[in-house]
Amino acid sequence: MGELPDLQTPLYNHPLPALEAWLHQLGAQQRRDNACIWDLHRPEWSARIELEVEELTVKWHADGQTSVRHFPYGLSRADAEAAILAGP
User: What angle do CA 57, 63, 68 make, to 5 degrees?
Assistant: First the structure.
């Protein structure tokens, strides 16, 4: 995969290989049993990122709590990344 689109580009303007490269750059690991689900681990929390048909769903796990957020693909990659890495 070449360079990623500009950070302000909406996620819907990223081809699937670019979205996958972006998630990999964040440190997420693609699940072998479901290519649409990625696992991201940080010291304070872990998250499951799912590439769904109409949105990106993130489920964070921290301190025995689960938080779920849905992000539309119209969101820029910069905004989606900031929201994901901010954690629950």
Answer: 15
Contact (Cβ atoms closer than 8 angstroms) between residue 32 and residue 77: no
List of residues 6+ apart from 80 with CB closer than 8 A: 11, 56, 71
pTM equals 0.91
Tens digit of pLDDT at every position of the chain (88 positions):
568 999 999 999 999 999 999 999 999 999 999 999 999 999 999 999 999 999 999 999 999 999 999 999 999 999 999 999 999 9
Residue 84 to residue 88: CA distance in whole angstroms: 8
